[in-house]
Backbone:
């Protein structure tokens, strides 16, 4: 029996942040978000202090996509798309 497909969604803030990027970076970010085959690729890093949050770099490694992975529901939730200095500001512990 084949495994269920991974799905993903974005928070309203992440959509707004993504729409403010230059067009070529939007395409790069969306390609990066398409982690549906492997939501935790080797180039991702687990965020310390969070049970299921990860980050992946894109855009010449200047930008970060922060996301959570729900293994049970096979769902990826993108909650931030920002430059490195701004990516981790005001993050709350889950």
Residues:
């Amino acid at each position: 029996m084949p495994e269920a497909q991974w799905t993903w969604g974005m928070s309203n803030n992440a959509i707004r942040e993504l729409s403010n990027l230059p067009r070529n970076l939007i395409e790069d970010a969306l390609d990066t978000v398409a982690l549906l085959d492997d939501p935790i690729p080797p180039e991702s890093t687990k965020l310390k202090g969070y049970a299921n949050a990860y980050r992946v770099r894109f855009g010449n490694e200047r930008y970060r996509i922060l996301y959570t992975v729900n293994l049970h529901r096979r769902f990826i939730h993108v909650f931030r798309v920002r430059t490195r200095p701004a990516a981790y500001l005001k993050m709350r512990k889950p």
Notes: The helical segments are 12-19, 23-33, 84-87.
